[in-house]
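call fold(seq) -> tokens
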Amino acid sequence: MARSRGVSRTASGAALCRLVEQQQPPGLRQVDDPVVATVLDPILVMVSGVEAMQRAFIDSLPAGTRGGVVMRTRYIDDVVTAWAESGRTQVVILGAGLDTRAHRLSCLARCTVFEADLPEIQREKRSRLRAVPARAGEVRYVGIDFETQPLPDALAAAGFDAGLPALFVWEGVTQYLSEPAVRSTMAFVAGCAPGSMLVFTYVLPSLVGDGAYQGWSDPFTQQLAATEGWIFGIEPTDLESFLTTSGLALIDHVGVPEYRARYLDPAGRRLEVNPGERVALAGVRAERHPPSGDAPS
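ret:
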């Protein structure tokens, strides 16, 4: 993925979506991220603070893109919160980018959070967060290129305890990786301690290749598609078998209908959500469906 000043353009775009959401009234806001302005380039923050520029940014995205980013983040926040509140203490964020959970979720106070990403991205992010205290008990940065370096080795060097269960968070990443790289990561999670889980986003195959960034009107989209193109997708009907062959079991699977039923309708929030990206929760055990009430809601 091509990067501007170390951080990918798409990571910055997702963070901008969270920044815009932060301006919603508390009763309607789906993600509370008071830290996001700190991790963004100050120029982007200044531009997004201008209403006309903010509207232009949102209008340049395919319909429902901002809503999709907001809702996937909300769902994953709920998964992380349920994990931490159950007393489990290891969270691994794969391709962390501008993820701010370790600095904004108080539920992580007893957890060690491992943030895995390219070293240059981590250096820039850490410099911006220097004055922001972490909410997690400990944050460990794991420098890695997922296409060329073994994840188990990188995590072990950072002190990851393979004997304890871990929650792996993989948000907005899989579409940029090859299928072998996706399967390799899933196989690693499948071999982790019993009780370990993976929550991840994926896009539909129709959005891969020439379909990537379809509907964008921003003038630099062609360059974005060429440098950060989407190369991997899954059909929702194939997801369970894909996970099974990778050694994982499907626990929960959400998209637009679930977002509306669990979050938006109860809050009286009208937010368009693009159906092209979904989120799945998988585990290393054989259970295919959680008992009533165990899935995030």
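Residues 65-85 form the longest helix (21 residues).
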